């Protein structure tokens, strides 16, 4: 790490560090929220109060879900429960695919931890089919995403997304298995990184969970740090999401949304998947925005396709895949994600 006390061209090291901190602060969701509200105060002051009230009520409603989610995540991290996920990649290939797709939605990993975790598994000989099942299901659902989706869109949608996450993992895993049997992906890995992107090094693959973690000081400290960091992370992104939802409901014409993605046919669902793919919305921002879109006429199937395609193609998810595997595997990952999003949207539309 560079010494921040040395003199830089722009001034003293401490002053440079202050400028850097300011630049980082201006890139946060809090800064975006303040900028949006200031713009409203200047351009449309009559809508400022309604926007703040809308976002505040929605955030208060979701608060109970946020609290439970961060408590659960902090508990899983403090106990070391991620070692249970590694055990899913041991045994017969078909069994591994099923367990990897299931545990992908339960793993308490951040985006940077997935990289060394999967790199270690591939280096140890875990089949790409099981890893692909994990990769496809992991960004779609986790405990906080499930609860936030339920708060914004209802439990039927949240459970439908959870089922779609596991099904997409299974679909991708068995497709890759069939391709590998035909001789594809004999050497899928790039050079594997030695540590996580944030320096955490990733989760350990050995050991066993300690469910009564409070007996160890280090685990209590982990619980406290994870609770605070995850709580602030979810709070800032959901606050931004609800402000954006308020703007969407107020300014975007409902008939325009209905014309593009309001139909029940496969065309509207496919369009939603293709639009969702480059949207790069994380799984915490998407549900409130989709709630606003559905109120304006977006179909349930299109909303499901949009959410799944957007999660698979989110920047952290794609970065994890791109950093480890060759371009051909990366292309298959994206193709399976978009195709699976369309299929899930069509099926959910029929059920809904």
Automatic annotation (TrEMBL):
One matching Pfam family: ArsP_1
Record keywords, A-Z: Cell membrane, Membrane, Transmembrane, Transmembrane helix
Keyword Membrane: yes
Membrane topology: Multi-pass membrane protein
A GO CC annotation given for this chain: plasma membrane
Parts of the chain that traverse the membrane: 28-46, 58-76, 97-126, 146-171, 227-244, 256-281, 302-324, 330-351
Subcellular location: Cell membrane
Family stated for the protein in its record: Belongs to the UPF0718 family.
Protein's UniProt name: Permease
Lineage per the UniProt record: Bacteria, Pseudomonadati, Pseudomonadota, Alphaproteobacteria, Rhodobacterales
